[in-house]
Design brief:
Layout (H helix, E strand, L loop, with lengths): L1 E4 L5 H12 L3 E6 L15 E5 L17 E4 L11 H16 L6 E7 L8 H13 L5 E7 L2 E2 L4 H12 L2 E5 L5 E2 L2 E2 H10 L9 E5 L5 E2 H11 L5 E5 L4 H11 L4 H11 L10 H5 L6 H13 L14 H5 L2 H4 L7 E8 L3 H9 L11 H13 L20 E2 L2 E7 L4 E6 L5 E9 L4 E10 L1 H27 L5
Parallel strand pairs: 1-2, 1-4, 2-3, 4-5, 5-6, 6-11, 7-10, 8-13
Antiparallel strand pairs: 9-12, 14-19, 15-16, 16-17, 17-18, 18-19
Amino acid sequence: MKVLLTGVTGYIAQRLLPVLLEDGHEVICCVRDKNRFNKKNYSTANLSLIEADFLNKESLQQIPKDIDVAYYLIHSMSTESGHFENMEELCATNFKNRIEQTTTKQVVYLSGISNADELSKHLSSRKNVETVLSGSTFALTTLKAGIIVGSGSASFEIIRDLVEKLPFMIAPRWLKTKCQPIAIRNVVEFLIGVIGKTETYNNSYDIGGPDVLSYKEMLLRFAKIRGLQRRIVSVPVMTPKISSYWLYFVTATSYALAKNLVNSMKIEVICKPNNLAMLLGIKRIDYDTAIKLAFDKIEQNQVLSSWKDAQTSKLFNEGLTKFIEVPVNGCFKDIRSLKLTNSDVSLRKIWSIGGKTGWYYGHWLWEIRGFLDQVIGGVGMRRGRKSETEVFSGDAVDFWRVLLADKQEKRLLLYAEMKLPGEAWLEFKIDKNNILTQTATFRPLGLLGRLYWYSVLPFHGLIFKGMINKLAGEKTK
């Protein structure tokens, strides 16, 4: 079948794409920015790429007309905008209008379980998108999931942060709320299984694992699997706002996502019974097994996708291409070069920078900068990185975003997503003469930006000198 896949740089689509290709489908991937998709990972002629922004209906004309099945996997939950419902409705409307002009027989939409009488803004928006997509020339199959458990998923990483960082938790009362978690493997099986199944046309299904658990039970069972002793006390005095800040400071989530998660966590997300798993022959994975499978992937350094890579930023709104050309005029620069004795070793160090590896020199200074960024609402140093040894365009690396990662050119370019009175780039490049050049560029915004640069200049002299020496294998003097 010819399949249109949206939300390709998101967590779910990155898991779904390889399976679609393995099953022999021809897949057209919709991305807002081609630089965020590493096509080299897929050596197949069955994959094509088109740039499409679903907020801009004109850009959707590139979608071919001879589509059989389309996946709608777009959401704006982590956007910093307070009006993500309007964005989601506009995206769904533009998508529907364009798909109606094609030969698409079926649209598969992944939504959230919405069985409560009172819904959060997030779940209400998801339900509204289903309404927008319904009653069209194509058949709509809606799958509704709650907590998704898998390496790199937002739910998994937040639970992991809470359990592994806090031996004792004073937690909000919504930890008593019941939910029905589902393993990412099962989610992909359901998404694949409904393709072309006429029984699922114009139907909606809740999908979940076999366990119904409270969030507190999920945390404690996670701790048991990890061999950790944890105590949790629920208190009624934590308002949604305080709960959001609690999640924001303890875990790697952004405040915008934390706020939407907290509002959703107050509502039970338990599946209405259906026969879809039996119809598709899917064996549902229990919560404990899902956790163990996730850690198997982490330990093998095989995390395919992470929710952090899809966090909304102005880079994704405006496109990575606009930022790849590092500005020259009106900028401050710190440029350092060293001759390398072993460029391959240095390249491996560059490709492993950040996350658990750290920044090679003065890491505690990086941590302080990350903490200060977090205090003023920035991303801080908590995001880490998806893989310890590989990076690709669009990946998050602590408070940086990867703009370009080209091993053949031996060039890595990062863009700062911390709160700054200006814009910052950090570039590493090894030339044909085995000379490593490390360039920090800062384009200040007004007087405050210039004052900021001069105030951190002494620290830059220490950090950047030490970092390039370590990358080059030299002793820091």
